[in-house]
Design a protein that fits this description.
There is one protein chain. This protein has 195 residues and is α+β, with helices and mostly antiparallel strands. It has a single domain, classed as Jelly Rolls. The protein is built from 3 helices and 10 strands. The protein has a 7-stranded antiparallel beta sheet with strand order 1-8-5-10-4-3-2, covered by helices on one side.
Length: 195
């Protein structure tokens, strides 16, 4: 569990406020995705904007968000070697009182850091589990991950509440899950995957 780090206020307040303001503008380009966790599950819908995805042209918002990436790497104490993805996520309020969290998942199938930067104050914790990607076995595919998540009872080791300006950084091979808010209208998170 010592790979989990939480920091508040890693960037100036003005930049923190501007990120929230820009993401809540009517003109911000949000795109519906059927599942915010793993393609093919189809039960964790939400909105997303991919600002950067390794190997594809970045979105027009990449240059605005990129300084945040360096602040995250600096807070973590590891220089940025390679950036894989910056994805901005929007989860809206859920009224189902039996709902606990979205599907446990990993973002990539190789060693990396995952950082969740919280754009606004909300509920809808990021839940971190004791299980890691290497427990699946030598052949890791989308199919074996789905089979693993379907049969595994996940053990929660930490939970991070969305607080504006907070970032939670952890080993990207650790299974984790987002949670839709029940008391706030929206949960905005910028997820950065890097080494």
């Amino acid at each position: 569990m010592n790979d989990i780090k939480v920091f508040d206020k890693i960037i100036p307040q003005g930049y923190t406020d501007q990120i929230e303001s820009d993401l809540l503008r009517r003109e911000f380009p949000w795109y519906y995705i059927n599942d915010v966790t793993t393609p093919g599950y189809g039960s964790n819908s939400g909105l997303a904007h991919v600002a950067y995805d390794h190997g594809t042209p970045p979105s027009e918002w990449y240059s605005f968000i990129k300084p945040l990436v360096y602040s995250i790497a600096e807070a973590n104490g590891h220089p940025l070697t390679q950036l894989f993805r910056i994805r901005i996520g929007f989860l809206s309020k859920v009224s189902d009182v039996t709902y606990s969290h979205n599907t446990p998942h990993v973002d990539f199938l190789w060693p990396h850091y995952t950082a969740c930067y919280y754009v606004n104050d909300s509920d809808g914790d990021t839940v971190l589990f004791d299980q890691h990607l290497d427990e699946i076995g030598p052949e890791i595919t989308d199919k074996t991950i789905k089979e693993y998540t379907d049969r595994t009872t996940f053990t929660t080791v930490a939970s991070t509440a969305p607080k504006k300006g907070r970032v939670c950084i952890f080993n990207g091979t650790r299974f984790h899950a987002s949670t839709k808010p029940q008391n706030h209208d929206r949960r905005l998170v910028i997820t950065v995957n890097y080494i």
